[in-house]
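Entry:
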Amino acid sequence: MANISNRTKGICCILLSALCFSAMSSFINLSGDVPVAQKVFFRNLVALFIAAAALIKNKESFKPHKGCLKYHIIRSSAGLLGVFGNFYATTKMASTADAAILNKMSPFFTLVFSAVFLKERVKAKQAVAIGIAFAGAMLVIKPTMSNVELLPSLCGFIGGVCAGGAYTCVRHMGNKGENGRFTVFFFSLFSCIITAPYLIFNFHPMTVKQWIYLIMVGISAAGGQFSITAAYTFAASREISVYDYSNVIFTAISGYFFLGGQIPDLWSFIGYIIICSMAIWMFVYNNREHHRQKPI
């Protein structure tokens, strides 16, 4: 491992994260008719215990970094809305790959929110890429009243927007020196507190299989969160973020083999190509700009 570059380690971690989140999507579907709020609770409960164990093992503080508490609350609120949107879309849409690609709009909205709130400049070419990616998302959503999946599609898209806001807060807190493991812990604790009242008053009885599937949702989600945190520790976003789109490929494969032969329609495939193409183009563009600005 000593001879492996940090960039390669980052790529491996982000691919592992994509695989974990793909497994999470499959387990969400396999858990059946369990209410979305209940699925979200178990997703974060398992992650809470794993994050707490990681903090204890590394002898790290359970307190936020100075000046970060309000950003944790904003990040957790936006992140929880993003999870609800993604889970609802994953549960209700015929193709889990459609839900996955809508969630992958988050990097584009991270750029938008970073420009608005962190005053980071969005260049003209990046703005064009955001606009084209948005058009690709519309091909997946198919915003007509005859589309029976319009509501879950919109929820999935809004989930991607909220995730973009959450990642902006994570970026800001990272610049302040916040611990990534504590960020995962705080978000998981916040989510469990918010969703717990629903379970207390509206708990939906589950079969043994459903219990197992929801525990696997939590384990997969925790694996994805820790892997993506490690990935961005090893390498900068501009070097590895494009590999996160492998999640859509993994999700499409698992949807076909494990969820009844799911196959996205032609318009969705075109949308995938457009969004992924813009992600790749931005990846190449950001790397060129970085090397151009690098002192010789």
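The chain is about 80% helix and 0% strand.
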